[in-house]
Amino acid sequence: MHKLYILTGAGLRASHMDDTYDFYKGNMHTNYPLVDGKLSVQCYFEALYNCYCLYRKKFLNKFANDNETNTSSKSVLQHFDAIIFHSPYGKLVRKAFTWLTLHDLQIDANFYKKNSNLLKYK
Fold first, then answer.
1. CATH value at residue 16
2. Of 32, 46, 56, 74, which sits 20 to 30 A from 64 (CA to CA)?
3. Are 100 and 48 in contact (CB under 8 A)?
4. InterPro entries, alphabetically (predicted)?
Protein backbone atom coordinates (compact mmCIF):
# COMPACT_ATOMS: atom_id res chain seq x y z
CA MET A 1 0.00 0.00 0.00
CA HIS A 2 1.57 3.26 -1.12
CA LYS A 3 0.26 6.44 0.57
CA LEU A 4 1.11 10.13 0.32
CA TYR A 5 -0.47 13.10 2.10
CA ILE A 6 -0.21 16.86 1.74
CA LEU A 7 -1.38 18.77 4.82
CA THR A 8 -1.18 22.49 5.56
CA GLY A 9 -2.34 25.06 8.05
CA ALA A 10 -4.73 26.42 5.43
CA GLY A 11 -7.20 23.67 6.31
CA LEU A 12 -6.55 21.87 3.05
CA ARG A 13 -5.31 18.37 2.44
CA ALA A 14 -4.76 16.00 -0.43
CA SER A 15 -3.97 12.31 -0.39
CA HIS A 16 -3.25 9.49 -2.78
CA MET A 17 -3.21 5.77 -2.16
CA ASP A 18 -2.28 2.99 -4.54
CA ASP A 19 -2.22 -0.77 -4.03
CA THR A 20 1.15 -1.83 -5.45
CA TYR A 21 3.79 -4.36 -4.50
CA ASP A 22 6.81 -2.08 -4.68
CA PHE A 23 7.69 -2.77 -1.03
CA TYR A 24 6.24 -6.12 -0.01
CA LYS A 25 6.73 -8.25 3.10
CA GLY A 26 5.20 -11.45 1.79
CA ASN A 27 7.81 -13.99 2.91
CA MET A 28 7.61 -14.40 6.67
CA HIS A 29 10.77 -16.54 6.71
CA THR A 30 13.00 -13.49 6.24
CA ASN A 31 13.31 -10.22 8.13
CA TYR A 32 13.53 -8.16 4.97
CA PRO A 33 10.84 -7.14 2.49
CA LEU A 34 11.00 -7.56 -1.26
CA VAL A 35 11.71 -4.17 -2.81
CA ASP A 36 11.21 -3.19 -6.43
CA GLY A 37 13.21 0.05 -6.44
CA LYS A 38 12.27 1.20 -9.93
CA LEU A 39 8.55 0.65 -9.29
CA SER A 40 8.86 2.30 -5.88
CA VAL A 41 10.30 5.49 -7.40
CA GLN A 42 7.60 5.48 -10.08
CA CYS A 43 4.90 5.11 -7.38
CA TYR A 44 6.47 7.92 -5.34
CA PHE A 45 6.33 10.39 -8.23
CA GLU A 46 2.85 9.30 -9.28
CA ALA A 47 1.57 9.83 -5.74
CA LEU A 48 3.36 13.19 -5.52
CA TYR A 49 1.87 14.33 -8.83
CA ASN A 50 -1.67 13.28 -7.92
CA CYS A 51 -1.50 14.87 -4.45
CA TYR A 52 0.00 18.11 -5.69
CA CYS A 53 -2.54 18.49 -8.52
CA LEU A 54 -5.45 17.88 -6.15
CA TYR A 55 -4.01 20.20 -3.49
CA ARG A 56 -3.30 22.94 -6.06
CA LYS A 57 -6.89 22.74 -7.32
CA LYS A 58 -8.30 23.01 -3.77
CA PHE A 59 -5.92 25.86 -2.89
CA LEU A 60 -6.80 27.92 -5.96
CA ASN A 61 -10.53 27.36 -5.40
CA LYS A 62 -10.33 28.35 -1.74
CA PHE A 63 -8.22 31.47 -2.19
CA ALA A 64 -9.43 32.66 -5.61
CA ASN A 65 -11.25 35.67 -4.11
CA ASP A 66 -8.88 36.33 -1.20
CA ASN A 67 -7.07 39.66 -1.63
CA GLU A 68 -4.34 38.76 0.89
CA THR A 69 -3.33 35.55 -0.90
CA ASN A 70 -1.78 36.12 -4.31
CA THR A 71 -3.34 33.48 -6.55
CA SER A 72 -2.59 35.21 -9.85
CA SER A 73 0.06 32.54 -10.35
CA LYS A 74 -1.02 28.95 -10.69
CA SER A 75 2.00 27.97 -8.60
CA VAL A 76 1.21 26.94 -5.06
CA LEU A 77 4.83 26.26 -4.02
CA GLN A 78 5.46 29.94 -3.34
CA HIS A 79 2.88 29.84 -0.52
CA PHE A 80 4.68 27.14 1.49
CA ASP A 81 7.11 28.14 4.24
CA ALA A 82 8.58 24.64 4.27
CA ILE A 83 8.08 21.34 2.51
CA ILE A 84 8.74 18.00 4.20
CA PHE A 85 9.09 14.86 2.11
CA HIS A 86 9.19 11.19 3.02
CA SER A 87 12.86 10.47 2.45
CA PRO A 88 13.86 6.91 1.59
CA TYR A 89 17.07 8.49 0.28
CA GLY A 90 18.16 12.11 -0.15
CA LYS A 91 18.45 12.22 -3.92
CA LEU A 92 14.79 11.26 -4.31
CA VAL A 93 13.73 14.27 -2.24
CA ARG A 94 15.85 16.61 -4.37
CA LYS A 95 14.32 15.14 -7.51
CA ALA A 96 10.82 15.43 -6.05
CA PHE A 97 11.18 19.14 -5.27
CA THR A 98 12.80 19.79 -8.64
CA TRP A 99 9.99 17.92 -10.32
CA LEU A 100 7.33 20.01 -8.51
CA THR A 101 9.12 23.20 -9.52
CA LEU A 102 9.31 22.09 -13.15
CA HIS A 103 5.64 21.15 -13.02
CA ASP A 104 4.80 24.69 -11.86
CA LEU A 105 7.00 26.13 -14.60
CA GLN A 106 4.98 24.30 -17.21
CA ILE A 107 1.79 25.78 -15.77
CA ASP A 108 3.05 29.33 -15.19
CA ALA A 109 5.55 30.84 -17.62
CA ASN A 110 6.23 33.77 -15.22
CA PHE A 111 7.18 31.51 -12.30
CA TYR A 112 10.84 32.58 -12.07
CA LYS A 113 9.96 36.27 -12.39
CA LYS A 114 7.70 35.92 -9.36
CA ASN A 115 10.13 33.66 -7.47
CA SER A 116 13.51 35.19 -8.22
CA ASN A 117 14.98 33.59 -5.09
CA LEU A 118 14.75 30.22 -6.89
CA LEU A 119 16.92 31.32 -9.83
CA LYS A 120 20.05 30.04 -8.08
CA TYR A 121 18.62 26.49 -8.30
CA LYS A 122 17.81 26.71 -12.01
1. 3.40.47
2. 46
3. yes
4. HMG_CoA_synt_C_dom, Thiolase-like
Most confident of 1-5, 9-13, 85-89: 85-89
Q: What residues have CB less than 8 Å from 102, skipping those under 6 apart?
A: none
Instruction: For residues 95 and 35, give the distance between their C-alpha atoms in angstroms, rounded to a whole number.
Output: 20
Taking residues 11-30, report their average pLDDT. 81
CA distance 62 to 71: 10
| pLDDT surpasses 60 at 1 | no
Q: How many domains does the chain have?
A: 1
For residue 27, the enclosing domain spans 2-121
Work out the pLDDT band at 78, boundaries 50, 70, 90: confident
